[in-house]
Amino acid sequence: MTARINDAVDPGLVPQRTLKGGDKIPCIGMGTFGSDRFSGEDIAAAVKGAIEVGYRLFDCASVYGNEHLIGEVLEEAMKKGIKREELIITSKVWNDMHGKGDVLRSCAQSLKDLRLDYIDIYFVHWPFRNFHPKGAPPDYHNKDAKPYNHEEYMETWYQMERLVQAGYVRHIGTSNMTIPKLKLLLRDARIMPSANEMELHPCFQQPELFNFCVEHGIQPIGFCPIGSPTRPDRDKTPDDYVDIEDPVVVKIAKAHNVHPAVICLKWAVQRGQIPIPFSIYRHEYVSNIRCTIEDPLTDEEMKELEGVDKNCRLIKGQVFLWDGAKGWEDLWDVDGVIPG
Ligand SMILES: NC(=O)c1ccc[n+]([C@@H]2O[C@H](COP(=O)([O-])OP(=O)(O)OC[C@H]3O[C@@H](n4cnc5c(N)ncnc54)[C@H](OP(=O)(O)O)[C@@H]3O)[C@@H](O)[C@H]2O)c1
Question: How far is the CA of 10 from the centre of ligand 1 (A)?
């Protein structure tokens, strides 16, 4: 069952989390990556609808190619009375803009496209300079790709810090990181990350990384919170689990009379990460925000959902691998060591 159209949620009722320094952020946001399937126009229309129904957090990125369209929507919303400080807008520097000066240029472009004076959280999208063209096939390989290089990462991070110092960015964050890489960053950073965007859904709970972030005051932001059923083909393998078909998720969904997607989101919010589900369909994104203010999961259901974890990473990132890498696991330091 989904929520009725026009069933807007008062943003004041949506629970908030607190970032380093005290800034508040809603416990749920909307993703804006179209997975190479949905048009920028459709996504911008969804952002417009989402603002109407109570969303205030939007997860953007330069590589999604739609910030200029979302910017028009944000500007219009602010003209109609939404205050800038009510919105939390994130963006991310893509892998091909890590070089000296490029981070500042990339941020300037995102600010221009989003029609904003500042970005709330600016992420390093991936800890590698390796990239793939839009719509890359599953077996794409970039000959120039290299393993993680901490000196290069810090060169990028120090530019991120400059953006904070200049006031263009409120907070900086990491994405697609691991504990070994975060430990190095925390050792060398002058401005600590406020948030870490990471893949999180019932079949991929990453408890160690999640706890590491929480212990260090880094807010986990969970991407693919529903298990990304519409993700690009390059990110699909036959062994992947489907969260919304998991028997425990389905059973709890029936008990609450909601779609299994909604159970994934309730679990995420109650666990403490900030999920950023994507949908261009109004009935879906209304259900997704509404579920944060009503009919919570019981402690028992939360416990049952903890048992659903299959350590099933969906966004493996194999298109970023370098010559000589053994497999996608090399991107994720699975043995606790950064390959290099
Ligand atoms: N930092 C990173 O590297 C990174 C990586 C990936 C994603 N992200 C961010 O995370 C966001 C979310 O990830 P995602 O889009 O891959 O996956 P997701 O949010 O897990 O899944 C999105 C899909 O779930 C379905 N859905 C959403 N709400 C639903 C509902 N109430 N009922 C039924 N189905 C529902 C929709 O499919 P249907 O269209 O079939 O209904 C939608 O296309 C992205 O948009 C992006 O902003 C970040």
Answer: 23
